[in-house]
Amino acid sequence: MKGVIDRSVLAHPLFTGVSRAHLALLAEELAGPWTAAAEGRRFEARGGARKRAAGAGARYQLVFVDRLVATLIHLRHDLPHAVLAVLFGVDRSTVTRGLGEVRGLLARRGCAVPDRPGLRLRTLEDVFAYAQTENIELRLDATEVQVRRPVAGRGGRRAFVSGKKKQNTMKATVVADGRGRTLWTDTLRPGRMHDVTAARAGGIASCFEHFARVEVLLDDGYLGLGRDHPGQAVTPPRRPRPGALPGRFEQWERDRHGHAADRITVEHALAHHKRWKQLIRWTHRRDRLPDTYRAIASLVSDRSSMT
């Protein structure tokens, strides 16, 4: 079967969501890990060492660069596997296998560090250590991705019903810096979980304990963290009590507006994530969404660090 579109055209930024220079860097970075993983799978399939010379045997119908491009198109536009198979001139199962391989590689990359080439942040502890070393004030917030409703009669079905969205969702906690550059995102949680509970499950309490000089700007959903970690978890100022002097209300409004203006950059980071269609509404298996979100976050962080 021959592809109906030139594969070089499919690498255009309108399809992949990344520039050609960014695509070249990704191919250079991930080719080695992908080749090693492929050799490991072949070793297991053979049950031992190679019996023929390297390069012998059948050739890949979908080479690594094409698998990378197909994965980026899938993340950006959520094209079905069957459509990608027609575009690249291969079987659908080949596309499905290739997407799973490359998506995992992208998810394990972590997020790029601005002005520090080669350094990537993969855990929340990494982010807090970086923030304390560089004296950076962090911004943290949660976002929800709509998912399909679980099968009726299955345990834990209500766990995904979001009280805020009134939909079945999964929740991601994201950390950004003052310029809206993504630094970290966690394993996604069921949408019913409260924002504070999700942050605590990600280990933020121990990070506050071990990195005492790091400040994190938060919204009203994290008042519990502000109470437990004063001076580090910075939440909006509390509203004055009824009967307070008029000047107190005016000062409270100014302080609250200033806090929102400082924290808005994490909302910008979340908006960059939602430009990738798969994070607008997830229609695939829920257990694949965490890797997908981390893969997209790593790509967005690359673009932010390049500017």
TrEMBL record:
Stretches assigned to the DDE Tnp4 domain: 140-292
InterPro entries: HARBI1_dom, Transposase_HTH_dom
Record GO terms (molecular function): metal ion binding
Annotated transmembrane regions: none
All copies of domain Transposase Helix-turn-helix, residue ranges: 62-111
Keywords recorded for this protein, A-Z: Metal-binding
Protein name, as recorded: IS5/IS1182 family transposase
UniProt organism field: Streptomyces spectabilis
